[in-house]
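Researcher: Let's continue the batch. This sequence belongs to protein-N(pi)-phosphohistidine--D-fructose phosphotransferase, and it's 593 residues. Same format as the previous ones, please.
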Amino acid sequence: MNVIIVTACPSGMATTFLAARRLEQAARRRGWNPIIDMRSRIEPEITLSEAQLAEAELVLIAASPLASVALDDFLGKRVHLAPIEDALPDPQAFLELADSRARVLERKDIAALTDSAAPASAADETPFTSSRGPSIVAVTACPTGVAHTFMAAEALSEAGRTLGYPTRVETQGSVGAQDALTEQEIAEAEVVILACDIEVDPTRFAGKRVWRTSTGTALKKPRDTIEQALEGAEVESASASGGQGGQQKGEKRGPYKHLLTGVSFMLPMVVAGGLMIALSFVFGIKAFEEEGTLAAALMQIGGGSAFKLMIPVLAGYIAYSIADRPGITPGMIGGWLAATLDAGFLGGIIAGFLAGYTASGLSRYVKLPQSIESLKPILIIPLVASMVTGLVMIYVVGTPVAGLMTALTEFLESMGSANAVLLGILLGAMMCFDLGGPVNKAAYAFGVGLLASETYAPMAAIMAAGMVPALGMGLASFIARSKFAEPEREAGKASFILGLCFISEGAIPFAAKDPLRVIPTCMVGGAVTGALSMLVGAKLLAPHGGLFVLLIPNAINVPLMYLGAIVAGTLVTAISYAMIKKGAQQVETVAAT
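Model: Same format as before. Here are the structure tokens for protein-N(pi)-phosphohistidine--D-fructose phosphotransferase:
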């Protein structure tokens, strides 16, 4: 396709030249035939011939202000106008946007642009020059609420900006909702994207077109997510809220998502309880046994309260994810019974699903006279679902699951070195397989659940291995600098810091670009770290925090050997990837999408 690209900026120097060259390169990659016209103080303005104007199928003008470019020569041509700053971050996306939105230039469009005292504003108000697409609002939430939540939000915001769609993202992380969406923003939005791995309250989006997907998909394919949402989102009805909504394309619901919702709400309880127990050990491993001491008080808070509430919270919010608020009461009651019957986290999971599906079934299928229908959510469902869940837990589930948990705990505690190493290899490789995906989260949930049974070794191997991918990619970008482009080296620095914090998602930009090399090397390094952690008998009381947990005395029983295991796995990943990686490949965009 023959295209004319015109660039101009107030200074008339670097920005004009840079935008022109990047747009020209991007156009040639698309197979277009570009003619470049830079309107600057250092470049003479070219005179387009009649033949060039006649052959042009698209005219792209990137200028600030828009009215600074004479448009008379382009009357009757397909033209797209936009501020020059929109062309720099992602030229390929800018060209796609220009091709899809260009329209035939008419005399009235030129008049509307030149008659305005504020050209940029006039451009926004004129249908021809408007570059604002449909407004989008989104919510991101992942089980831990640390990495995927905020990285997916940033990716969606960046992709929306490059596509020309005003995008506002609310994050529901571990510290609660941030950048909360206003009612007006929701009302004005064309579509709502819920990129959530856990259940979030959808009632405020009733009547809006909603598209559900995962944080991983939104992070790795943000532009595809936005385009699919605009095309395939369906209207959310009021009855679809509360976990009973129909399935939609892009939405991953079902038992796995319900389990992750429970883990997400349980996690702060585990972190707080584990660190309280660790702090009590500062005064001595047995200091809490002396009544009235600070160590005893800390142990009572952490072990006697927080850890006891872990399983009820897990079960309650699994049930909440399934049946909304009516599921919380029977879920927590079932979870407490699981804890008191020594059924552990497996019993809590069973109780949560049992309570949730019982409450959901009562809500859907039990029809009552209108006069007493209002009593169903506050009286009938909690009563009947709690009774069913409690009786099943006491007479059917509790004893056999308690025996299974006891056997599992005894097996883990009595494992020989060979079996411990094999378990460490398995858990370590799982943590590095999909960098925050389903396999990673399954291994993590397993380790967190065992903390309730005072089994701490698997959690140590899991967190150590989870740090390896991001640390390894960061170190590789340092020791083999010549093989990494400048943007990759910058990403490596951020990845290393994220790795120190136990955020394995820092390696995602590398895995997305070179998965066949990155993922296997990460898995090997993670397996080495997991195996070494189990071999030295490392036990970790807190399920998050990365290396910073080592600053808390007794949070890890063998800190130096534990650190050595992390270093060993990191070196394996970094060196192996540095050796097999191909040379640097220059990237076209500043921010990966």
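Researcher: Any comment?
Model: The radius of gyration is 29 Å.
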